[in-house]
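Researcher: Quick test of sequence recovery. Tokens follow.
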């Protein structure tokens, strides 16, 4: 059957009109590709791309081929050294329906375990994940959690005392500045470790627990009044958050100090010995990658720290009028000159 010109135009018009109607429906039925979303909780770091933990984690993702905003998205939250904030921050990330939770402390890991049994969780910095009930075993975690332990039980307290004794051999009074409210349960163990080491070397150890920023100034004033000769600063997120304040006060009071994290030394502290937190965050990206590719946290073993580092700042030693023994410099993984 032959169509008139008018009939043909009518059919073409209807076809185009239907095309416009159907196209949106087709687009609606075929949603754009969803990229995985990570919920990341930092216990102490400030919200800045220069912070070492964030930078290390992002670098780890880039090394594996992920491009933030294109192949992976990241929702970050910052507890700023306040463990009591962990439950609310974790709850925010769970409500966002992230695909994986990455949390940077024991208190954050405990909050995450309480909040969800469905979302995979990668933790960084859990001292005793089996004892605390996070996982069934290191080799076979079970459940929805795995990650990297912090290993406070590696004898750091004893090493801190030994290194300080080498730098200040005539000192007899040592202060231990630590976070007073420690839900991780590691504070008492670390304090005991430090006390035993000090006693063995004939030193008197005075603990200075703090839980508010203002208390840090008071602690240093008291150290000076008691003629303290050296200082140990713990690795808590609280003191990490206020590390610039701690370093400035140590310089003002001319106190040789050793810290549990190298960030203090990078910012002007005398020396540090401990785990490389940046290394753990970088390695955490590998577990995120494995989970995104189908691995289950239950089957990924909890890893122990592999990198321990002694870092010494010779500029600070000179400002304090100290001579670092060559034997100690030889042991250092890095010397800042």
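Model:
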């Amino acid at each position: 059957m032959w169509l008139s010109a008018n009939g043909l135009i009518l059919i073409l018009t209807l076809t185009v009109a239907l095309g416009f109607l159907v196209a949106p429906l087709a687009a609606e039925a075929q949603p754009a590709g969803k990229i995985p979303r990570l919920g990341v909780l930092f216990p102490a770091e400030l919200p800045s791309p220069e912070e070492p933990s964030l930078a290390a984690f992002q670098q780890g993702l880039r090394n594996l081929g992920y491009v933030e905003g294109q192949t992976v998205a990241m929702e970050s939250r910052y507890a700023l050294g306040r463990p009591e904030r962990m439950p609310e921050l974790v709850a925010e990330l769970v409500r966002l329906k992230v695909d994986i939770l990455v949390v940077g402390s024991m208190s954050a890991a405990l909050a995450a375990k309480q909040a969800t049994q469905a979302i995979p969780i990668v933790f960084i910095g859990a001292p005793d994940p089996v004892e605390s009930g996070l996982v069934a075993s290191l080799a076979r975690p079970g459940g929805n959690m795995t990650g990297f332990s912090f290993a406070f039980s590696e004898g750091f307290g004893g090493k801190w005392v030994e290194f300080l004794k080498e730098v200040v051999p005539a000192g007899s009074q040592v202060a231990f500045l630590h976070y007073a409210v420690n839900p991780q349960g590691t504070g008492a163990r670390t304090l005991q470790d430090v006390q035993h080491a000090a006693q063995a070397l004939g030193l008197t150890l005075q603990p200075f627990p703090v839980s508010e920023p203002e208390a840090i100034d008071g602690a240093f004033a008291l150290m000076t009044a008691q003629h303290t000769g050296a200082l140990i600063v713990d690795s808590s997120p609280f003191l990490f958050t206020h590390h610039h304040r701690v370093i400035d006060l140590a310089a003002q009071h001319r106190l040789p100090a050793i810290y549990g994290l190298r960030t203090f030394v990078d910012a002007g502290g005398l020396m540090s010995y401990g785990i490389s937190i940046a290394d753990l965050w970088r390695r955490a990206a590998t577990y995120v990658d494995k989970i995104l590719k189908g691995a289950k946290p239950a089957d990924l073993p909890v890893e122990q720290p592999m990198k321990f580092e002694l870092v010494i700042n010779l500029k600070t030693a000179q400002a304090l009028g100290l001579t670092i023994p060559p034997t100690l410099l030889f042991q250092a993984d890095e010397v800042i000159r």
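The longest strand covers residues 173-179.
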